[in-house]
Design brief:
The chain is of the alpha+beta class. Helices cover about 30% and strands about 35% of the residues.
Length: about 190
């Protein structure tokens, strides 16, 4: 007889971090909660049709600003071959805050974090990532991430299964696979062989 599943354990499993290029994350404008409870997870819907509540990104840290006050808070910019990620880390992310304090610009870094959408004063939808962890890496790790992110993006573009998330993505985002193919190709051209 199978052991009963503990629903509390399943309920708080960590979501896998999705490999997403900056260009795709920048185009994301739809966020939703999966459930009605206060602690229900929040997701963004990627333009390529997959829900995501954690991302794994790798790129070059180009700007790092530290603000002081009651709490230390960092705002950083990381670029990959397709664009810029806006990242933050503060006292609620102590691991990322500590790791970030010893990283300088320009360095290759790997970040796992939670994407959040917000509206700017002029009405634009913007996205940033709240870092859970940030680690200095070398170019070979960055190149491997580009290869992996390209493969995952292709899988999302070419998926044929119709899901509620894919249907919503078709409604929310113009479907332009040729744009994603070009972005992937340009990113792959930066990998050193």
């Amino acid at each position: 007889m199978a052991a009963p599943q503990n629903t509390m354990t399943r309920r708080y499993e960590r979501e896998p971090a999705r490999r997403v290029f900056a260009a795709e994350l920048r185009e994301t404008t739809y966020q939703f909660k999966d459930g009605t409870e206060e602690m229900s997870p929040s997701y963004i819907l990627l333009p390529t049709g997959e829900r995501c509540n954690r991302v794994f990104i790798v790129g070059t840290i180009t700007e790092k600003r530290r603000s002081e006050g009651e709490n230390v808070f960092y705002q950083i910019r990381i670029v990959d071959p397709t664009g810029t990620f806006f990242i933050s880390a503060g006292s609620y992310q102590p691991e990322a805050l500590q790791q970030l304090s010893s990283i300088e610009t320009p360095e290759f870094v790997a970040v796992i974090g939670k994407p959040n959408l917000f509206e700017s004063p002029d009405g634009r939808t913007l996205i940033s990532v709240r870092a859970e962890s940030i680690t200095k890496v070398d170019r070979s790790v960055r190149d491997c991430w580009i290869l992996d992110a390209a493969e995952r993006t292709l899988e999302r573009i070419e998926a044929t299964e119709t899901t509620p998330d894919r249907q919503t993505a078709q409604e929310k985002y113009p479907q332009r696979p040729e744009v994603w193919y070009r972005i992937i190709s340009d990113a792959l051209a930066t990998v050193e062989m």
